[in-house]
């Protein structure tokens, strides 16, 4: 039995970091979107039984190639989010056993694209498709125990995300733009990015300030298919501290605009920067030029 699923990358079109929570996380306000860039996760084999004798779960994840297949090999088994998701799901339904996954890894790691979270969400979907134990809200609650972006990755599409990321408000609409995802190979540690943001002092703001207005503006933008609101209202609070520490990432954003991106922003805590282009021709021309300097320049679209 081999069940497979695509785990789509996520991008942040807007990301505000707000006040710190009692659990150590920060509240955020973000406009997220899924793009066609994806990992391919396959459940190769599973053998489960009741857990009357105690919890005994083993999960294996095998590298099946892809542009970032080496990342899978470098992650210790106990840190692999696919294994964490699988173990948590089976524990919740009171089952023991073994599960074997393979993954074709195409989403860069440590790049602000949610690759690990998306893989974890895909594993939860595979298990829930098989056992059908949880509704979407219950599955999202399980996902929130694994990572802040997992509840969003379970749903995908355009969404406003709040809380630590676990509050997901789908936003209907579309953006008929081509997306360039550019990564210069710099790995950004998310915890260190938050530390830098706290040192900058631009944090701990009122989590409700301006959120209602911004939500309406972004919803209107998606309904109309226009990015004019993004140009004037969208930000990524991580840009200032990350660009200060890694000027090359800020230069990458400037280069996207120089090559006629209609909108550009760093996604997540970095290091990838995305550019939106109104036509495929403009996007391909920019991709060709940027590939002269950067190894990873991916042309994709919203899904």
Q: Specify the CATH class of the largest domain.
A: Alpha Beta
Number of helices: 11
Radius of gyration: 19 Å
What structural category do the secondary elements indicate?
A: alpha+beta
What fraction, in percent, of the residue positions are helical?
Answer: 25-40%
**CATH-derived topology of the largest domain:** Ribosomal Protein S5, domain 2
The shape is: globular
Write down the domain tally. 2
List the secondary-structure elements in sequence, H or E: EEEHHEHHHEEEHHHHHEEHE
Describe this structure in a few short sentences:
The chain is of the alpha+beta class. Helix content is 37%, strand content 29%. The protein has 2 domains: 3-170, Ribosomal Protein S5, domain 2, CATH 3.30.230; 178-301, GHMP kinase, C-terminal domain (Alpha-Beta Plaits).
Task: Please describe what this structure looks like.
The protein is an alpha+beta fold and 303 residues long. The chain folds into two domains: 3-170, 2-Layer Sandwich (Ribosomal Protein S5, domain 2); 178-301, GHMP kinase, C-terminal domain (Alpha-Beta Plaits, 2-Layer Sandwich), CATH 3.30.70.890. It has eleven helices and ten strands. The chain has helices at residues 69-74, 81-92, 115-131, 136-144, 150-155, 190-200, 211-224, 228-233, 239-245, 247-258, 280-290; strands spanning 3-20, 26-50, 57-63, 95-104, 159-162, 167-170, 178-183, 263-266, 273-277, 296-301. Strands 1, 2, 3, 4, 5 and 6 form a six-stranded mixed sheet that branches. Strands 8-9-7-10 form a four-stranded antiparallel sheet, covered by helices on one side. Helix 2 (81-92) packs parallel to helix 3 (115-131) and helix 9 (239-245) packs across helix 10. The mean pLDDT is 90.
């Amino acid at each position: 039995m081999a069940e497979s699923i695509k785990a789509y990358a996520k991008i942040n079109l807007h990301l505000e970091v707000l006040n710190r929570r009692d659990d150590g996380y920060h509240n955020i306000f973000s406009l997220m979107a899924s793009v066609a860039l994806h990992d391919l996760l396959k459940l190769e084999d599973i053998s489960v039984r009741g857990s009357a004798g105690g919890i005994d779960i083993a999960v294996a994840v095998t590298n099946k190639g892809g542009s970032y297949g080496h990342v899978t090999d470098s992650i210790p088994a106990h840190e692999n989010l696919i294994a964490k998701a699988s173990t948590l799901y089976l524990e919740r339904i009171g089952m023991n056993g073994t599960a074997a996954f393979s993954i074709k890894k195409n989403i860069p790691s440590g790049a602000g694209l949610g690759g690990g979270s998306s893989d974890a969400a895909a594993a939860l979907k595979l298990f829930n498709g098989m056992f059908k134990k949880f509704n979407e809200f219950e599955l999202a609650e399980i996902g929130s125990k694994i990572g802040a972006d997992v509840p969003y990755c379970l749903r995908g599409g355009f969404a406003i995300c709040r809380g630590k990321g676990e509050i997901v408000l789908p936003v209907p609409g579309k953006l008929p733009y081509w997306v360039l995802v550019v990564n210069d190979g710099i790995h950004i540690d998310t915890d260190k990015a938050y530390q830098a943001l706290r040192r900058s002092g631009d944090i701990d703001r009122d989590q409700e300030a301006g959120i209602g207005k911004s939500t309406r503006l972004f919803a209107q933008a998606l309904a109309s298919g226009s990015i004019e609101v993004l140009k004037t209202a969208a930000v990524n609070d991580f840009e200032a501290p990350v660009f200060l520490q890694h000027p090359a990432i800020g230069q990458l954003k400037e280069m996207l605009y120089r090559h006629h991106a209609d909108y550009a922003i760093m996604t997540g805590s970095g290091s990838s920067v995305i550019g939106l282009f109104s036509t495929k021709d403009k996007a391909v021309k920019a991709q060709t030029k940027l590939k002269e300097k950067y190894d990873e320049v991916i042309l994709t679209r919203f899904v």
